[in-house]
Prior knowledge:
- The strands form two sheets. The protein has a five-stranded mixed beta sheet with strand order 1-2-3-5-4, sandwiched between helices. A two-stranded antiparallel sheet has the order 6-7.
- The protein is 53% helix and 4% strand.
- The protein contains 32 helices and seven strands.
Amino acid sequence: MVVLVGLNTHTDLGRIRxxxxxxxxxxxxxxxxPTRGRYxxxxxxxxxxxxxxxxxxxxxxxxAYWHWQSHDAFARSGELTGELCLHWGGDHATxxxxxxxxxxxxxxxxxxxxxxxxxxxxxxxxxxxxxxxxDTTGVRQLLARLDEPRRRTARSTEYDPLAPAEExxxxxxxxxxxxxxxxxxxxxxxxxRQALTPDETERLLSAWREAYAGRLTAWRGWRSVLPALLxxxxxxxxxxxxxxxxxxxxxxxxxxxxxxxELLRAAALTGDGGAVRCWFRAHHALREPDPVRAAAxxxxxxxxxxxxxxxxxxxxxxxxxxxxxEPGTRHPGADASxxxxxxxxxFATDERLPRPLRVAAAKAAADTADxxxxxxxxxxxxxxxxxxxxxxxxxxxxxxxxxxxxxxxLTGYEGGLGDLYHRYRTPAPxxxxxxRDRVADPxxxxxxxxxxxxxxxxxxxxxxxxxxxLLPRWKKELTKKYRTTYTExxxxxxxxxxxxxxxxxxxxxxMLAWWAKPKPLWKTPVRLLTxxxxxxxxxxxELWDFxxxxxxxxxxxxxxxxxxxRLDGTHPLLVAERLIGQRGVRAYVLNRVLIGVADPAQxxxxxxxxxxxxxxxxxxQEVADDPRLxxxxxxxxxxxxxxxxxxRYPDQVSPVLTDGQLAAAHAxxxxxxxxxxxx
Length: 679
């Protein structure tokens, strides 16, 4: 566990903190070093807003800070063991000038207007640019440089060749008795260039299998040793690969053979997306040169063996990459991403492919078709443009049939679910049926239940059927910790409790009794969110006492606003705007609540405004233009919208904005250029 130590200038942390205290000045400020409460960049921006308000600092002041995750660069002793990421807000040039070159003995690397500043020690090197092997910081910096790819694609990574002195230095580190903890760092840059020797590989293999018997993946160095074993045709390569299972997929795909194909197939049929992609690559290389026929054959096998739906998604991704890499896919006037986008849309209606793969393509093309249509308009080849538009037209005609009764992958990265949350703002009857089916499905995990139940509850579509489906699972499964800080939905047991209370179901009493117990501790910050179910004045008062306290807000203010709106029969926006400037209500929390409740049929529970989200931009614009609201409330919406990445870093908005969406956003902002955003 990392701990903050005092200003002991004999440690890196002490020296950096002492320097940090000297910073700040005209139009530039630094936040105090972090606690666990500042865990992300969003937390940093909220801390800055709070500090500006407390100290009377102008809101357009530029600032710098680091957060608790960045603080992991320090060891318990205060030693700097990695680059310290310094994040920032405001004007990049002002921040760069304010930070300067860093404290004596350290350096700052400017990551540019879209990156962080990186602070690290200054180290000594010899004539070949190599550090003393005993200089831990110098060694770390060298290895970081050698491990930086010169080119990375979805299918391969390329590195600059090693200088002779660099290669000798690395081999020297692997000589003598094997130290697996140290070897992992030196083996990687060598094998990235296929330079591990047979002797080094053999010695590493022996030590690895002895020290990590039965748990080979626990040693990170296997990612270098396995490729070397396959490359050197070592007799134990296949036994090791089989024990590694799906984790070995990428190495096996890089060395296609009948044996590797057999192992990849076994891993792919489990539904592992990476294994499926690698299985396709090996099959395509060995058995079927036509990528569409190769994908069709593997899709059939996945269906026959009832592999999870995610397997078809992985197969589609591999097919798209293969086709986009083929000669002749480039189009005059199109950017590099166009072949991949066009292939995605085209596969949805390609009758050579089985329906499960076409459905996967149709889902992937949901946010792609309009981009292809726009890109086609920029092509200088008239025939190519017409062909691309015809592909989109076929997709548009088939889309509804292909997507009927489908939904997103509920088991993947939750950020992917957040990216498409805006699609469910007005759910179609087919969407509601799909959400209900997923809640009723015993195989749906906690994340999937949280996502689906929240949407059903918010839209008034959750009922006794959903409650009864989950009652057998709530004590064993839904009482587990599930972090929802970065999502638009709440913990599923919060939502289920609200539903039980609204329905006056007998199970509500047991759930409330569980919430009232002191353990587990994870539930304490979110217990009050259950007050949204069957609201009354007592619950409203308890929530309000929390809101005006100094405790961290985990959705309590939003819950109070939604609860108060239900009790008063009014729109939550009108409730929220009455709190502007009220003592005890933190402005930065209220601002994101004001945006988050713009549509009470689908509130946004993320703990901060997400500047990459379609939902947050649209709600901010609606608040800015709502004639029912005061100018102060509308100004908050306007400022929030202007700070969205659509206007600052449009390529970071997810899903990617079309040209039309981006133009509409800028036109909207330009039409309101004469309005001044409130502080």
